[in-house]
Design brief:
single chain, about 230 residues, alpha+beta, FAS1 domain, six-stranded mixed sheet, 6 strands, globular, FAS1_domain
């Protein structure tokens, strides 16, 4: 009786043993690779930066470094509003090499958290090249509440952290970081103020009003002297 019972359960035991072995041998699910383009697109205000990272292939370089390399990195991400402050056509005037250098200038060669900025040494090391010759200087001043970055051309403020993990830190900045190597020879880099310079008509009107006031003051002074002399 026992023998017949064991024989009847044998197929079920074989099936369960096979399922257990298969589950045990199945590989663990790997985490999805980090994609810098997806990180920036999720925010919805870095379309110009995303275009430049794709056009220069620096975005692919970042993804390769953080997914296959052992070293971390830090990316300063200018918003679309930051790019809009640049003079019209200035990006298109850059050569392909200069566009690559501009993007690499926004990438530090190591992972730096917000708190670590208070202890870093200037100038910061970027992927754009050597900074000891003064061509790609990037200096930081930091307090408990604010991180400012200066390039010799402009200054940017770290607005907030966009993304961080063990390999990469992405920070939103309110200005494009402009390296001296590329922009020092340009007399004008930024777009003119929306208000613009005063028009000739407004200047003439202001001058006329001033002249009328001065004439009125002189007339009142003469009239006052005449009244006292009576």
């Amino acid at each position: 009786m026992m023998k017949q019972l064991l024989l009847s359960f044998s197929p079920l035991l074989v099936f369960l043993l096979h399922c257990t072995t298969t589950v045990a041998q199945s590989p663990a699910t790997s985490p999805a690779p980090t994609n810098i383009t997806a990180i920036l697109e999720k925010s919805g205000k870095f379309s110009t930066l995303v275009w430049l990272l794709g056009n220069t292939q620096v975005g692919d370089r970042i993804n390769t470094q953080i997914n296959k390399g052992n070293k971390g990195l830090t990316l300063f991400a200018p918003t679309d509003a930051a790019f809009s402050r640049l003079k019209s056509g200035i990006l298109n005037s850059l050569s392909d090499q200069q566009k690559v250098q501009l993007m690499l200038f926004h990438i530090l060669t190591s992972f730096i958290s917000l708190s670590q900025f208070q202890a870093v040494s200037n100038p910061l090391h970027t992927q754009a090249g050597e900074n000891s010759n003064g061509h790609f200087p990037l200096n930081v001043t930091s307090s408990a509440k604010q991180v400012n970055i200066t390039t010799g051309i402009d200054t940017a403020n770290v607005a907030k952290s966009i993304y961080t993990d063990s390999q990469i830190a992405v920070y939103e900045v309110d200005n494009v970081l402009l390296p001296l190597e590329i922009f020092r020879h340009l007399s004008s880099v930024f777009a003119p103020s929306p208000e613009g310079p005063p028009s000739r008509a407004s200047v003439d009107t202001s001058s006329a009003m001033g002249l009328m006031i001065r004439h009125a003051a002189v007339w009142l002074g003469v009239a006052a002297i005449a009244a006292f002399s009576l």
